[in-house]
Design a protein that fits this description.
By secondary structure, this protein is an alpha/beta fold. 36% of the residues lie in helices and 17% in strands. It has one domain: P-loop containing nucleotide triphosphate hydrolases (Rossmann fold, 3-Layer(aba) Sandwich), CATH 3.40.50.300. The protein has a seven-stranded parallel β-sheet with strand order 3-2-4-1-5-6-7, with helices on both faces. Bound molecules: guanosine-5'-triphosphate and magnesium ion.
């Protein structure tokens, strides 16, 4: 067997982290709060963003970068509500900062208060990639089981908020909200928990209030763009 030694001249991951930090500071300075929305496939990310846009209509300006392996179906759903750009990964299971930057070249954010990045549905890989967000949010739908935080700890450890989605289905599934919250808090005691139902709009006002508070803090911070993400 022959061996080949490759000398790595650049730390690629460090360069991506630098780019993310630079973009976070830039968007923070212009007053745009960036929210990275993560979950397993189908937990309700796009539905939550549709409900959020409806709740804020005429009050706050939001835009969405939406990631998927293929198709622009989510972008089509969001387009009637707000500016949106689909990021198609062509098979990759998560978004990375270069694709986010490409999307931002097509999406003007100068007057945007809230920029959401809907990540590819996946409870593992997206946790390791900083997308310049100020706030990271993980959704857990009640049909997935209340044991998931402990099984996928990095996603919950690196998030600031846990959205428990599809609460209208609670009477039909063996999901304990208290058990899920306890499990998540074992991993990340500071997680803010927000139960929601995008269909009935239950909890949407509280979710929007949480984000408004986060943006208020961003605007008030003296060192704007300070990283809140620990990947
Ligand atoms: N019962 C119920 N169904 C919901 C709720 N929110 C979303 N759904 C349904 O769940 C399915 C998936 O919702 P999406 O919003 O597409 O989920 P997603 O996380 O964006 O999915 P991907 O982008 O494919 O990962 C759809 O059929 C929605 O109608 C809810 O609050 N209650
Ligand atoms: Mg979606």
């Amino acid at each position: 067997m022959t061996t080949k030694t490759i000398t790595v001249q650049r730390d690629v991951k460090a360069e991506l982290r630098r780019q993310a930090e630079e973009l976070r500071q830039h968007l923070g300075r212009q007053g745009t709060l960036v929210i990275n929305v993560l979950s397993s496939p189908g937990a309700g990310k796009t539905s939550l963003l549709q409900a959020t846009a409806e709740h804020w209509a005429g009050r706050h300006r939001m835009a969405v970068l939406v990631g998927d392996l293929e198709t622009d179906r989510d972008a089509q759903r969001l387009a009637p509500h707000c500016p949106v750009e689909q990021l198609t990964t062509g098979g990759a299971c998560h978004l990375e900062i270069p694709l986010v930057k490409q999307g931002l070249e097509k999406l003007s954010t100068a007057d945007i208060d809230f920029l959401f990045i809907e990540n590819v549905g996946n409870l593992v890989c997206p946790a390791s990639h900083d997308l310049a967000e100020h706030v990271r949010v993980v959704l857990l739908s009640v049909t997935e089981g209340d044991d998931k935080p402990g099984k996928y700890p990095k996603m919950f450890r690196t998030s600031q908020a846990l959205v428990i989605s599809k609460t209208d289905l609670l009477p039909h599934v063996p999901f304990s909200v208290d058990a899920a919250i306890d499990d998540a808090h074992q991993i990340q005691p500071d997680l803010t928990v927000l139960p929601i139902c995008s269909l009935s709009k239950d909890g949407i006002a509280q979710w929007c209030q949480f984000l408004e508070g986060q943006r208020h803090e961003l605007l008030a911070r003296t060192v704007i763009g300070e990283s809140m993400v620990t990947t």
